[in-house]
Each structure stands twice: as C-alpha cells, then as structure tokens.
Records
---
Amino acid sequence: MEVVILKTGAEVGDFAARRISLGAEDGSISVLGVATGSSPLPIYSALRRLRTPAIENLTAFALDEYVGLPKDHPESYHSVIHREVAEPLGLDPEKVHVPDGGAKDLPAACTRFEENIRDAGGVDLQILGIGASGHIGFNEPTSSFASRTRVKTLTAKTRADNARFFESPEEVPLHCVTQGLGTIMAARQIILVAQGKQKAEAVARAIEGPIASMCPGSILQMHPAATVVLDPDAASQLKLTDYYIRTYKNRPSWQR
Ligand code: F6R
C-alpha cells in the first residue's frame, strides 16, 4: 500500500484530485468511483478548481445508498452525489449511477448495478473514505471479502456517526445498499482519504493491522494499486510513519 501523509486535509484533497485529473487527461481514468461523506469533499473542491475539461466526460458510480429514503430526500446519496459531485463537476447525470435503495426488488437492483459497472468497463479509480468502524463503502465489520453489491444493516456506530446529517438520530436508515468488498477490490486503482483523530485507529488497523473482516478496510492490503492519503491526525496511530514519509519524499521521478 502506498501511504502518503500530508500537512492538511486540503492537501489530501489536492493530492487525490491531481491524480484523478491526470488520469482523466491521459485517458487512464474514464470511470470514477465516488464516495459520499465528509472525507472526499476536499477532493471534489480541488477538482472544481482544477477545471480539467476531461473530468466532464467521466462516468461515475457511487459506493452506496440508504434503503428507504426517497431519492429526492436531501440526504439520500442520490441527492448528495448529484449536489456535491455531479453538478459542480459538470458530469452528465445520465452517466452518474447510484445504487437504487428504493427498488421494490432490492437484490435485482443490486445485480443490475453490478452489471452497469461491468458494462462501463469496470471502475478505473475508486475514491474511498473509512468509517471509525473500519468500514469502506457500507461494508461493516464481518462483511465478506468476496461480497458484491447487496443490502447491509448499518451498525449503531455508523448510524450515530451519520446522525449529524439528519434532524434526529432515529431518522438515519437502518439499512443500506452498498458495493461489496469484492466489487471495490475490482477497481483498478484505489485512493482512500482520511482526516482527523477520530479516524486514526481505523486507519492504523486498515494499513498495519492483520487482514481481517473485523476491519473491512484492511482488505486494501491485498489491492495492487491502493494509496491511502492522510492528514497528520489520521496518521497519528501508525507505527511506520517515518518510513512512509521517507518513501514519499524519495519517490522516483516517474511517480511524481
Ligand atoms: C460513503 C461511504 C462511507 C464513508 C465513511 C466515512 O459513501 O461509503 O464508507 O466514506 O463512512 O465517512 P466520512 O467521510 O463522512 O467520515
């Protein structure tokens, strides 16, 4: 895993945005996996500032969606992705896919979502955040490493963490539809971003802990092209910090 520790959350966003933008320009990224939540917001702002024309041509797939929130609810991921990613970046709404959490037949909708990803040629770069529980997407602890898009039950911790987006904690849905860990691992490149002390433990478990379904993010240790970009607080429980900093400083010129 490539581990990059930068000085601020804004720098974390700039780093990821530059990679995405270069990939869009050189044609290696045409399908982008997008995440909701607070962590990737600096990436989307930086992409807006960069104004790379090729970004507008991207196809996007969201990681997850709540079950039971109407699509037009302001906190449905359908609304969030369109408001915070698709519109500001000028993506074609027809090419922005969010799992359907309101489908009558949810398993069939999950299968269709997987087929849509496959038909688009797979995800070139997946943006990820990580939950304090270690989840990526909404793959909560004990999720199968082989899982594909499906319905999951949110943990009490995730519901409490996401209550900040709702008027009351009870409003946070109990269930979600999420890309599986197997789906996420099929992306050709992954960039996970994390900022703040509240992520430090999950980050350390994902990067340096044993690969275990109790910390779903630890599966990224098995990905051939995963980069984790952190601010100093999110990196504060890592053991090999000096090594990561030295490696990044001395990275070969073709990686700059
Ligand atoms: C969002 C998602 C989640 C979040 C994670 C961190 O689509 O799948 O895994 O990335 O819960 O959320 P924030 O960034 O709000 O701390």
Note: The mean pLDDT is 96.
---
Amino acid sequence: MNRRVRATIRGRVQGVGFRPTVYRHAVEAGLTGSVRNAPAGVIVEVEGPTDRIDAFFERLRTAPPPQARIEHVEAAEIPCEQSTAFQIVVSQRSGDPLVGMPPDLATCEDCRRELLDPADRRHRYPFINCTNCGPRFTIVTELPYDRPYTSMAPFEMCPDCLREYTNPLDRRFDAQPNACPVCGPRVRLITPAHADVPGEPISKTIELLRAGRIVAVKGLGGYHLACDALSDDAVRRLRDRKGRPAKALAVMFPSIEAVREHCETDAAAEAELTACSRPIVVLRRRPDSTLSSLVAPDTHDAGAFLPYTPLHVLLLAELSPLVMTSGNLSEEPIVKDEAELDRILGDIADYALVHDRAIVRRCDDSVLRLVEGRRMFLRRSRGFVPAEIRLPFAGPPVLACGGELKNTFCVTRADEALLSQHIGDLSDYTGYRFFCEAVEDMVALLEVKPEIVAHDLHPDYLSTRYARKTGAPRLEAVQHHHAHVAGCMVEHGLGLDDQVIGVSLDGSGYGPDGTVWGGEIMVAGLAGFERVGHFKHYRLPGGEEAIRHPVRMALSCLIAEFGADDLDALLARLPDLPPEEARPLAQMIARGIRSPLTSSAGRLFDAVAALVGLCPEITYEGQAAIRLQTAADEDVTDAYNFDLEPSGGMTIISFGRALREILADLGVGAPVGRVSARFHNAVAAAVAACCEQVRERRRLETVVLTGGVFQNDLLLRRSRSLLRARGFRVCTNERVPPNDGGISLGQAAVALARHELGISS
Ligand code: ZN
Ligand code: ZN
Ligand code: FE
C-alpha cells in the first residue's frame, strides 16, 4: 500500500544542489511526488511503498549534496495524491531571502576534473562551476539568489548551458553562474595602460610570474597580488612596492601534497585547507622548505591555502607556490573592480589578469589557525560569510557596528547573527566608505530594519559615529572588552542566566574611567559586567605614537618601575631609543602629559619585545608580540614572578617583578628565547591565579579567554592548560576571531540581552 510523506528539511539546503539530489534519489527509489524550495528550507513530498520511502530518506541522509548541511527534518503523513511522476517545482523563491545564498564555494572535484580534461567542452575554462561550487555571496546583486540578480545577468546562456541548467538530472541544474567558453565571462591580461597583452592570457600570465613579475589577479571577492613565492627577488619587490615590509603574505599551493612539502600539517589542518571555504591556514614552515623566507620574516609560519577558483587551478597547475596577497595599499579595502585597479596596477603590479564578471561584493580571504585541534579565526570572511551564528535567544533586529580596526559588523534576525565580511581599518577614508556601503548592502539584502543599533563605548570610533547617525530608535553602547567576552559567551551557547570570569587581553579599548583598557578581568553576563581586576597601569606616551614604537612603551614601564631619576641607566637598557627622543618622552611620562594610563596587555607585550631588543618599532599591528612569541623557547616551563595586588575592591595584576627579572636575565646574557618563554608563562600563571581568586569569591567555574592578545597561541595554550588543571571550564573563540573582528557579535549579544531583560546602557 502506498503512503505519502511530506518532509520539511532545514539547514543549508538551498543554492547547493539539494533539489536535484532529492530528485535523483526519489526517481532511483521509484517514488513519485515533488520537491520545492520554501522560506523554511526544502519541502519534499514522496509517495510510494513504506520500504521505498524509508530507503529514500536513508539515502538522502547518507548521500546529501556535498555542500549541504541537513540540520532538521520534520516529516508528516499526508493523504496520497496518486501522483505519477516526481517533479521539481520551480518556486517563486519568496520568503526568507537569505536561505538560498550560501557563502562562496571553492571549485569542486568534478569541475576540476572537467577543467583539466582536454576532451571536455570546458577544458581550461576559468569560470567552470556547478550546483556544488562557484561564486555566491560575491556575485549577488539582490536576493533571491537567481541568475538575473547576479553579475552573471549580462551573459546569456548558450543552448548547451541552458540544457544543463534546466535538466534536473544534470549536475548544473539551476546553477546560477553556469557558463562556458561560448557564452560566459572571459579573461584578459592587460598592461598598466589597459592594453591587451598578446597571446593566451593564462599561459602568458604563467610565463610572466615565472619571470619574477607581479601580476594582479582578479579573484572571487577582489584582486590578489601574485608573485613567485620561491623567489626572494619577486617577494622583496612586491613588499617594497606594496609598502608592506614584514607582515606575513599568504601563499597558495597547487595541492595538499605541495602544502605538505613546505609546511607541517595534520588531519585537522588538512580538513580546513580542503574545505569548500578554502581559508588561509597558518601552518609551521618546514625547516627544509624552499619558500622565500620573506613571505613571513617575523615567524616560522606560513599562511597556506589551496586554489578555490578555476582560474587559480589553472595558474597553479603549472607554477610553483604563489604569494597571493590582497590587492590593496596598506590597510585600504581590497580592490574589486577595474575602476579601482589603477591603485595597484602599475605602481605595484606589472600586469593584471582581469575578467568581465563583476565582483559585486568585496570579500577578503579568511585566515585561521588550529590551536590544539580547534579553530581560531584571525579573520572570518570569504567562505564563511554570510553563514549565520545561532544566538541562545531571539529578539528584535540589531545592527552592531563593531570596532575601529579589523572591523566587521553584525546584523541579527530573531536568533541568528550574521557577521559581515572583513571590512578592515575604518580610520582610513576608503575603509569607512566601504563600511557604510557594506552596512547598507547587508541591511537591504536581508530586508531587516534594525530596531537597536549597538556600538563601542568609544565616542570617536567612526563606527560609533555611524551608529549615532542611523537615527535608530534605540542605541546601545557596549564596552569593548565586555563585547569581546559576550561574543565568546554566545559562541558557546551561554545565555541570559550565565555568568563567567571574562579575561580579555587586548590592544586597547575605551574604558569608562578615562583610562585605556586592555588587560581586563571581569565578572560578566551578557547584559553587563563588573571589572574585578586589570593589568597594572602604565603611561602610554603620546598615545598612538607609543603603539607604533614599542620601545617608548618599554621606557614607560621602566620609568614606572624604577623612577626617572637615573634616566641614563634606563636608556642603557634601551639602545634602540635615541636619548634625544627619550628625554622629552620621559618628561611626558613623568608629568602624565598626553600619556593616558593603560592596562593594555598588548602594550605590555610590546614593552617586553622592545626590552629584549626584538622590535623597537612596528610596521603592522601586533608585530612586536608576534616576534616575541616566535622567539619563545617552548621547552622552558618556568615563569617570572608577578603580583596580585588588591586595590579598591579590584585586583591589580602587576608584572613589575617580572620586568626586574627580565633585566637581570638579560644582564647575564640569558637567551631571548628563555626570557620570552618565562614572560609568556608568567602572564598565563597570573591569569590563572587571578581567576582562582575570583572563583573563591564568586563561585564561578567558567573562564572566557578572549581579546587580540590571545591570537598568541602560545599564551592561549599555556593559559588554558593552567586553568584546566585548576578545574575551570575554559571557553575560547572558535567561530569569530578573538581580535576586534569578533566584537560586533558581542555587541549584538549584549544589546539583545539588555532588550530581553528590559535594561538599557
Ligand atoms: Zn563544481
Ligand atoms: Zn555556454
Ligand atoms: Fe579589542
């Protein structure tokens, strides 16, 4: 006897070839019925004998489309309709506009095979894609995700492509970017004068890269600057021209085997490298790697990734590993179209490999590392955006504007948080403009009207000013480090009733007491926090200038610990600081002129890095701490001393003794590796000891470790293991970065929690 079952399937089930797969399984099982997209997901109706229906659902469970993620299946028995065939109902795609738009997907194995198959009609066609792969987020102009609303709209499909697109049994059924050499986009190789370079563009590009040239390559979410990663000359030229002397450059390898030749990997790292999100994964370089050491001169690591577009596959197939770094000037947004190309073409790149499929949305590569097998994002962008992060409770729509550097923003709908792509540095005008465009774009795309706009407490952040200008009915100001902690809490499913010990070790954030915060211990819930401890205050002479010159921070710490009376003795410890620069600084510090107090952990790492002579000044954020971590000898397990000093109901974490011990160690010629390790171990031990104190008073067992300083995985590992040994539950950021790229999630969570509890900032 026949039955009919209707199942609503939720998860990532649209835009990933789900309906054709359902169709194939149903036809194979001899069932009739239908499948269609709906706002809630995909609705399947199957009619036939019970055993075949069971077999069908079993097959769907075990063999879903590769990029689909089934989260929930709700099945109900409905009356039979005596249907005679199985059909895909072409829906109006109304309802939730976002459901059909997963992040951009890397070229799949099937397409890769066809791409390299001389007999295939898409042999060497750099825009090959199918329902399981290809661009999404970066080509959509508006939703629903349908060809006319993508930058593929100007390309009319040829009869062959159209046949694939309309045939439910074809793996390109309903693949919106479907194209071929006859009907689709084309590449061109151009000179700085925008003249075509004669010859086949891809082969010619390979030839130029081999000859050490720098080529701007149009990718999914923007241009890359490419050069030979084995050539010191090429990499040095790229660095000189880009004005990026030392910050690590990502390297694209042709295959996982090639990655293994140059870097140490494990199963978790390889799973990330080969996932359809294709992030840059930070790996340890092998000592015998022939990569130019200039790709990451400050570390033993390399940011490795694999080709994710057909164009990458073709380029890498015939070349050694390529440096593929964002096509931009310093911290500006990544260049995405021809109009902006002249910013990088000519001055930086010798040639540009361009094409005529527009990039609708800028989207930088994502960067992550694995720390004890867990993901730590350094940047969450392409391949992950706009996938939602589930919040522990629902509320009205919120726009959270994020921070000033490494900006992302966040829009919520009910219990979903959608983080933007990496926006970057807002203090740069083009960065701020990108932020404004991206916010408007996201809000329009999601069709939400934010009722609450959350922002940082800092009154001068451009993101804060933007929030004020929105005219939203409700604004919520969120303290920077509370946002870091709250973001990590919701990542771990902690909700309104939970309280944690929040440890936010960070660069700098606005403190409501007029000091610059950044080494914070708080008892925090989602709605509010109480500062229970912080790193000892030091002066930040000249504000921003001290951040750019860690050696000035070192001077500040030494003056605080030893006084300024014998300045010459202090300066003898700081050979990198010219005395004529030091004297006025010492005055500023002593008198507190333009020298705010800061509890920043980031600045303490800067000071120590400068003290050991590793980094008197920086050319990118975090450089001093990166060098200090790289120098650390991980076999050293002992630590410098620290003090927990009670003060006004709070605990001041002082590394004054550690600084004295560092000077003593350096005085007897101790290796920098040992000094660095002992310092890292001291910070970890101080964090653990302070948490222990808080636990005794407050009976809290969960510790959140967050903030940009925890990008230092040595510090993170040491802190976590000490806390675990003391029986704490330790939460770290795994879905958003611990740096300021993650604070928009925290701001949104705090705003929603306050709304839920009926309180306001
Ligand atoms: Zn494919
Ligand atoms: Zn075609
Ligand atoms: Fe921060």
Note: Residues 707 and 738 are 5 Å apart (CA to CA).
